[in-house]
């Protein structure tokens, strides 16, 4: 995403995909507007409460518009998913993927044309270079160190083999972290075939390492659009092997199966979907009555949401700003636009370092929270002349306009932690009277005719994805949730899950959290029988009602 | 578990099976008789009330998988504990508040707050029921202790008005329109200056009001007098008997030529009475607004049984109220309560906070800000992980109890701090409860012969071990924030504003928007309540441009968040 050369190349390749995608989106949109109306009707409360699908519209609609926007700029699959703030996506950007340097080999023959065999004689895979397996193995082992939850899940459930008989097709980013997930699934008894959900994110050596151990992987870095669908098809269409579970990120695999192999699709025991876009597509299917298997939405689980937004941003805001500008925070006047989960995280981090933090907010409830947490709630215009740093996290567009940028102090920093690249009106800065000067990677000085400079980070794209890393710990939470969702769907008694989209049961959510507590050496208190009875709870959870806000 | 996805917010299904003593009046009577053997007649009514109510915990705790028998057992335990609680409360302070103290309804706490001290106990022992009363304008459709106190009560109300800016703004904004014109609101709440501001706001918005007290002890006579003088029919005085209580409610309903069409209830007694006694009136109601957890529970029971024939609004679970009653309020009162009682210094002290829910989060944040070393104990792994990420050590109480200087419980559970813990505490360790009933600290185990109790201040006991070691127990394990600190009017203002808006919403909703069910306040109203309180902080809300609103797909004026948003 950060490499302009790649973007250009991609633009061509992705053109056809873009068209298809926007049709797809338009279809979603029309459906969405209907439910939107009902959402706005305040009277329709009970129906709004009764089902998650009707909760979604606001968010979904946002997704849509952004998709289009994002498309025109970054026609990569990664770009399109950067909106979803799915951290899985960010693994594409993260430093670990830089480990793929080994594959800059100038071998231009497509892996599709090569005959490949692993050391055991199996050739049911398609990767760039099976020779890299050993290097990939090391990468996986490093990732294992930070994903203790999955490792302890392996240990705890290995003897039971809860996934024995499960035939899982997966379509995710292929990175060292997902490799840990895949190997965990295998250790729990599943057979896996895997493909990449993103044409650029695959770490070739990891794919090789997986193939070497017998997982059928069809992925390499830099697939073409055609390769992408070929890989998915090879993954699904295998003689004598019919998948019965789907693990998807983005919904492409689900879509392909649904269109191309309806008979196989019908027999699926369950779909686990991670990304916002994929979940949205599933809700569409479900609404149209065309979803004939149960699906699990792991994106909206509490742990994932909190980690993707609150905790992750709380850390990356400081990291991102330090790496790019080496700014000192103490005593600096900072305006944070938006006090949602991301905004709350940014505020907490900056306050802790002694910044003077002000908030802008449109929602009175969040504004009141900001007041009670001790932040001034202001309009951007009122403080724009004094501030040193502006951070946007609204999910909105044109939150910082040219008009406001014109009035900023010399040397003030503008960056975006939000949710797409629309929050800062960057287009308005591309005018002849302003000089752009790239001072570092991801750092531009925009210079006004009078010599004033404003420091723009990552050209208004997401600071936390462009200029800082996503910790493996966060990916571990997602991966663990996915594994548990698969186990839950596979082992659920007939009839527990019908043809609908479900949230992960709270108990599973709690289990994911508990698997990660060991990292902190946290000692969970156990309820005594007496106490559990008093509270009317099971000793082992779930501990909270579903509407609990955490 | 398959239903999980349908239940992101409270809805009728989530609430437990009807337990007999709530719905079944006869059973209630029986329990009553049964209990009467053990306790004084005065306690009787409290018990009865307590039985028919459930605490928020009990609501949370009910799960579909819980079997019927377990249910009843848990219920009994609960009652028993409640009973102990009340006895304490009674000996010390004979207030009906005890019965609701469990629900963490802040409205209740107004009884304890300093302002209530002004309702002096006049020695006039004749029941107000027997006295002929008339206001200066000659009205006599009310029944209070002493109309002469009206002027004094008026001053109280004016003080409260200062601190409830939202209602005052609401009066100004909506006053011209009279959105409640034609509404006949019957209310049953605590009668305090804060609710008086609410009542007078409703009147100014065009409603006719008749009011009774929801608690036999919480009424401030002077305020009731001022309201009566102002033309609102109030039937309430401090120290009603059980019989008086129902008489007042009945007088409130049963005036000829006046049929209520809205109910504003706190605890569900009024709703219950009307439903039983005046079913024809009940059917014609336009809506019920209920504030307390217990009342909500009773409404869900009714709804489940298919006997709720009017729409009801649950204001208890609105975001603003929940956050203020728990997170923000406790964040302030934990420091206040500890300082008032013990004058302790916080910096560098080792504290263990049991439970990291909303209350626990508030306590931890406040204590951390003052430089204490905070440990957390938690049973729920998700909350435990949150505590870790917020930088608190998650420990078991047994592991740290030897080192800590303070133990604060906020779990809602029982016997969180047991005798075995207290035996190992340091000399001078402070033990207190911010949770939700007096069960969290195992007090019974401290009432043994070898331990000496010494009351050093009001609400502060030293419990002295044979070896001379003492622990400092606050409020005898009852709620620290209600017993030892005040509840700000600002918090009550949020509740009152929410109630007023709920009434307006129900009254002016077009036919068919609300059916015979229990609803949460629409998010837009919640947002409006919040926005009315922003001027207090001089907060300037940013407005969306048309273009931005379109981009986000939301109206410029809200609601801004989907319903499942966690805040």
From TrEMBL, chain A:
Record keywords: Coiled coil, Hydrolase, NAD, One-carbon metabolism
Pfam family, one: AdoHcyase_NAD
Domain S-adenosyl-L-homocysteine hydrolase NAD binding, residue spans: 309-470
Transmembrane intervals: none
Cofactor note: Binds 1 NAD(+) per subunit.
EC number, as in UniProt: 3.13.2.1
Cofactor(s) required, per the database record: NAD(+)
Coiled-coil boundaries: 5-32
Species for this entry: Pagothenia borchgrevinki (Bald rockcod)
Pathway(s) the chain acts in: Amino-acid biosynthesis; L-homocysteine biosynthesis; L-homocysteine from S-adenosyl-L-homocysteine: step 1/1
Gene Ontology MF annotations: adenosylhomocysteinase activity
Family: Belongs to the adenosylhomocysteinase family.
Domain of life: Eukaryota
Name of the protein in question: Adenosylhomocysteinase
UniProtKB/TrEMBL annotation, chain B:
Cofactor requirements of the protein: NAD(+)
Occurrences of domain S-adenosyl-L-homocysteine hydrolase NAD binding (ranges): 326-487
Matching PROSITE patterns: ADOHCYASE_1, ADOHCYASE_2
UniProt feature, compositional bias: Basic and acidic residues: 50-66
Transmembrane spans: none
Cofactor detail note: Binds 1 NAD(+) per subunit.
Pfam families xref list: AdoHcyase, AdoHcyase_NAD
Positions with biased composition (Low complexity): 103-120
EC number in record: 3.13.2.1
Enzyme class (EC, first level): hydrolase
Recorded metabolic or biological pathway in which this protein acts: Amino-acid biosynthesis; L-homocysteine biosynthesis; L-homocysteine from S-adenosyl-L-homocysteine: step 1/1
Region (Disordered): 1-140
Gene Ontology molecular function: adenosylhomocysteinase activity
The entry's keywords: Hydrolase, NAD, One-carbon metabolism
UniProt biased composition (Acidic residues): 14-30
Superkingdom of the organism of origin: Eukaryota
Catalysed reaction, written as an equation: S-adenosyl-L-homocysteine + H2O = L-homocysteine + adenosine
GO biological process terms on file: one-carbon metabolic process
Stated family: Belongs to the adenosylhomocysteinase family.
Protein's name in the database: Adenosylhomocysteinase
């Amino acid at each position: 995403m950060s490499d302009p050369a790649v973007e250009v190349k991609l633009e061509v390749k992705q053109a056809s995909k873009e068209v298809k995608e926007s049709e797809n989106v338009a279809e979603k949109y029309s459906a969405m507007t209907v439910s939107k109306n009902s959402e706005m009707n305040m009277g329709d409360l009970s129906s709004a409460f009764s089902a998650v699908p009707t909760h979604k519209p606001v968010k979904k609609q946002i997704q849509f518009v952004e998709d289009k926007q994002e498309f025109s700029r970054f026609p990569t699959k990664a770009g399109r998913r950067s909106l979803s703030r799915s951290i899985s996506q960010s693994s594409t950007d993260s430093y670990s993927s830089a480990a793929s340097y080994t594959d800059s080999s100038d071998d231009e023959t497509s892996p599709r044309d090569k005959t490949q065999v692993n050391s055991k004689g199996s050739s049911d895979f398609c990767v760039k270079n099976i020779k890299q397996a050993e290097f990939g193995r090391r990468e996986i082992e490093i990732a294992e160190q930070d994903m203790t939850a999955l490792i302890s899940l392996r240990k705890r459930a290995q003897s039971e083999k809860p996934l024995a008989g499960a035939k899982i097709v997966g379509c995710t980013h292929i990175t060292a972290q997902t490799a840990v997930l895949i190997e965990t699934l295998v250790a729990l008894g599943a057979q896996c075939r895997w493909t990449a959900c993103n044409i650029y994110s695959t770490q070739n050596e990891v794919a090789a390492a997986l193939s070497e151990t017998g997982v059928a992987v069809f992925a390499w870095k830099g697939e073409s659009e055609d390769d992408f669908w070929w890989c998915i098809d090879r993954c699904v269409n295998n003689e004598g092997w019919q998948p019965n579970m789907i693990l998807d990120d983005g919904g492409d695999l689900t879509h392909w199966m649904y269109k191309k192999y309806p008979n196989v699709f019908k027999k699926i025991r369950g779909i686990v979907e991670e990304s916002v876009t994929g979940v949205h597509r599933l809700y569409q299917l479900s609404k149209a009555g065309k979803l004939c298997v149960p699906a699990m939405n792991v994106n909206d689980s509490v742990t994932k949401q909190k980690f993707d937004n609150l905790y992750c941003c709380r850390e990356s805001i400081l990291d991102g700003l330090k790496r790019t500008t080496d700014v000192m925070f103490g005593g600096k006047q900072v305006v944070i636009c938006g006090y949602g989960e991301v905004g709350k995280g940014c505020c907490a981090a900056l306050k802790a370092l002694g910044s003077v933090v002000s908030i802008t907010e449109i929602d009175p409830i969040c504004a009141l929270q900001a007041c009670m947490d001790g932040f001034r709630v202001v309009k951007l215009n009122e403080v724009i002349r004094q501030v040193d740093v502006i951070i946007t996290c609204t999910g909105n567009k044109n939150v910082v306009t040219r008009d406001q940028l014109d009035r900023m102090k010399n040397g003030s920093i503008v960056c975006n932690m939000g949710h797409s690249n629309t929050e800062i009106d960057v287009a308005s800065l591309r005018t002849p009277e302003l000089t752009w000067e790239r001072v570092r990677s991801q750092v531009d000085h925009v210079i006004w005719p009078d010599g004033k400079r404003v420091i723009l980070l990552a050209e208004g794209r997401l600071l936390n994805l462009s200029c800082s890393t996503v910790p493996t710990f966060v990916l571990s939470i997602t991966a663990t949730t996915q594994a548990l969702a698969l186990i839950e769907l596979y082992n659920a008694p007939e009839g527990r899950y019908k043809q609908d989209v479900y949230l992960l049961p709270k108990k599973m959510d709690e289990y994911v959290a508990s698997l990660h507590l060991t990292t902190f050496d946290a000692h969970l208190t156990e309820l005594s029988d007496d106490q559990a009875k008093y509270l009317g709870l099971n000793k082992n959870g779930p501990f909270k009602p579903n509407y609990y806000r955490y | 578990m398959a239903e999980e996805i349908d239940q992101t917010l409270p809805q009728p299904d989530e609430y437990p099976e009807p337990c007999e003593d709530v719905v079944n009046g006869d059973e209630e009577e029986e329990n009553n008789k049964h209990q009467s053997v053990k306790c004084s007649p005065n306690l009787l009514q409290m018990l009865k009330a307590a039985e028919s109510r459930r605490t928020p915990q009990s609501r949370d705790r009910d799960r579909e998988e819980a079997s019927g028998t377990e249910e009843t057992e848990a219920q009994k335990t609960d009652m028993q504990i409640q009973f102990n609680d009340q006895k304490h409360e009674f000996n010390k302070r004979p207030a009906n508040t005890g019965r609701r103290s469990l629900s963490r309804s802040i409205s209740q706490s107004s009884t304890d707050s300093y302002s209530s001290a002004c309702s002096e106990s006049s020695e006039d022992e004749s029941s107000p029921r027997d006295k002929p009363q008339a206001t200066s304008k000659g009205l006599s459709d009310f029944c209070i202790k002493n109309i002469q106190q009206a002027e004094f009560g008026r001053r109280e109300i004016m003080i409260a008005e200062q601190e409830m800016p939202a209602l005052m703004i609401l009066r100004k904004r909506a006053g011209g329109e009279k959105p409640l014109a034609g509404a006949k609101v019957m209310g049953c709440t605590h009668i305090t200056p804060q609710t008086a501001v609410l009542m007078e706001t409703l009147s100014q918005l065009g409603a006719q009001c008749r009011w009774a007290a929801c608690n036999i002890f919480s009424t401030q006579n002077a305020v009731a007098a001022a309201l009566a003088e102002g033309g609102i029919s109030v039937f309430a005085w401090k120290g009603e008997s059980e019989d008086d209580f129902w008489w007042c409610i009945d007088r409130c309903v049963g005036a000829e030529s006046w049929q209520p069409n809205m109910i504003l209830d706190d605890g569900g007694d009024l709703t219950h009475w009307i439903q039983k006694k005046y079913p024809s009136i009940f059917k014609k109601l336009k809506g019920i607004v209920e504030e307390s957890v217990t009342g909500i529970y009773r409404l869900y029971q009714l709804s489940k049984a298919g006997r709720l024939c009017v729409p009801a609004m649950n204001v208890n679970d609105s975001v603003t109220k929940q956050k203020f009653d728990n997170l923000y309020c406790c964040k302030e009162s934990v420091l206040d309560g500890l300082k008032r009682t013990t004058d302790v210094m916080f910096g560098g002290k080792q504290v263990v906070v049991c439970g990291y829910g909303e209350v626990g989060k508030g306590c931890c944040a406040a204590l951390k800000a003052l430089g204490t070393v905070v440990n957390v104990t938690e049973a729920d792994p998700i909350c435990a992980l949150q505590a870790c990420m917020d930088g608190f050590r998650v420990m078991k109480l047994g592991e740290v109890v030897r080192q800590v200087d303070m133990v604060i419980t906020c779990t809602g559970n029982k016997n969180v701090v047991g005798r075995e813990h207290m035996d190992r505490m340091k000399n001078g360790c402070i033990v207190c409860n911010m949770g939700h009933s007096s069960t969290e600290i195992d007090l019974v185990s401290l009432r043994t012969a070898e331990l000496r109790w010494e009351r050093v201040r009001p609400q502060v006991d030293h419990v002295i071990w044979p070896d001379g070691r003492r622990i400092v127990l606050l409020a005898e394990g009852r709620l620290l924030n209600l017993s030892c600190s005040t509840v700000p009017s600002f918090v009550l203002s949020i509740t009152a504003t929410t109630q007023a808006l709920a009434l307006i919403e129900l009254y002016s909703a077009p036919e068919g928007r609300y059916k015979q069910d229990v609803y949460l306040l629409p998010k837009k109203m919640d947002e409006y309540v919040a926005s009315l309180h922003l001027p207090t902080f001089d907060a300037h809300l940013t407005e969306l441009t048309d273009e931005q609103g379109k981009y986000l797909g939301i109206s410029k004026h809200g609601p801004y968040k989907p319903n499942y948003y966690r805040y």
